[in-house]
Amino acid sequence: MKLPPMNALRAFEAVSRLGSVSKAAEELCVSQGAVSQQLRNLEDHLDRELFIRTSNSFTLSEDGDDFAEVVQRSLGEIALAAGKVKREKTQGTLTISTGLVFGDKWLMPKLGDFYGLYPDITIAIDKNLNHVTFKNDGIDAAIRFGDGKFEDLQSVYLFSIAKYAVASPDYISEHGTLDSLANPERHRLIDCRRGSKDLDTMCGLWEDVVARDYVDLEEQLIILPDDLQAVNAALHGRGIALAFNYQIEDEVEAGNLVYANSQPVVTFRGGFYFVSPTNARPNSNLDAFRDWLIGVSEEFRTEVNSS
Q1: CA 170 from centroid of its chain's CA atoms
Q2: What average pLDDT does range 87-102 have in this prediction?
Q3: Which pLDDT belongs to residue 94?
Q4: Other Cβ atoms closer than 10 A to 293
Q5: Is the pLDDT of residue 112 over 50?
Q6: For a Cys-Cys bond, which of 135, 145, 254, 272 suits 199, CB 3.0-4.6 Å?
Q7: Domains of the chain by residue range
Q8: What is the DSSP string of 96-155?
Q9: Which of 213, 174, 214, 209 is nearest to 190 (CA)?
Q10: Domain 162-267 is of which CATH architecture?
């Protein structure tokens, strides 16, 4: 069975449905001449005139009218089937928006456990720093820092955050622990630049903590662009950095970082919340991810409180 050319069928379907070559050309993003050529190709293939052409009109012939009904229905069914296949292929994927540090340092290392429980669900992490609107942006849910009150969103509390003083084991072995947060004596201190209100650039800084009478900030302070670089410097033994609890969990557990002082240096109002649109369609995969996330957050809170 030899089928007519697909481009010719698409052009014919558009013209027969819209009643105009110009409108069909606009929909298909081609020229009117290209559409007219495809119509002639189809008529040549079928050896039938599908249109009645006069100087003042351009209408379907009887054969064209019958053929248009079949072509419109068939291409419509193909489009519906293609959409269904595409949805089935991607329905196991959830796109979650997070901040850069949270996504890289806390969430992604834990996803292996989630996949062990739900091997058919894929989590795509969107680390765009702009807050999503959930309007045609492909985001299923987000993890946001705040007080839990987000307009038109339902939220579930995960955990609060704080900053701790951390250093490499070698640095602590050589220089000792930090006995007083306000008086770091001659310790080298690592900071990031003071950022905006966005959590991934928000810093609790040493200059907010230490008493200026006890420290020479110009001599003892190393200032780096962001938290990630500050923690990396601490890992390499350059001094004591202030780091978010969720940012250093794996490094502390692996013994790559140790607490220079067990008390939180800086605490922040609010916490992390799992948020999603209140009017979203039911999604069992998203429910499974949310419940899993609540569970690992409870474990994290327990670990932090016992440390």
Answers
A1: 37
A2: 77
A3: 92
A4: 20
A5: yes
A6: 145
A7: 6-90, 93-160+270-306, 162-267
A8: EE--HHIIIIIIGGGHHHHHHH-TT-EEEEE--SSPP--SSS---EEEEEESS--TTEEE
A9: 209
A10: 3-Layer(aba) Sandwich (3.40)
